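Take a look at the protein record below and tell me what you see:
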Amino acid sequence: MKIYAADKSELMQVSKIERKGNDLVLKGKVYGTMPMTATLTPEQAKEAMKLLTPKLILFLLTMPFRKSKAAK
């Protein structure tokens, strides 16, 4: 999975998502070269849930079925 910056440059490539105890661990590379491991704790996940609105939740549920817009 790739995550892009606002200017469409590759920001991060996630190569693995795994569980470690009660945490979610993402492994990958930042800017294509620097290895990185990020951890999401249950407390951080609860904080993230507060940012979600019903409209955004619906969008996230339908996102896998959408197509990307073609670059102009």
Summary: The helical segments are 42-49, 54-62. The chain has a mean pLDDT of 91. The two ends are 23 Å apart (CA to CA). The CA atoms of residues 12 and 33 lie 9 Å apart.
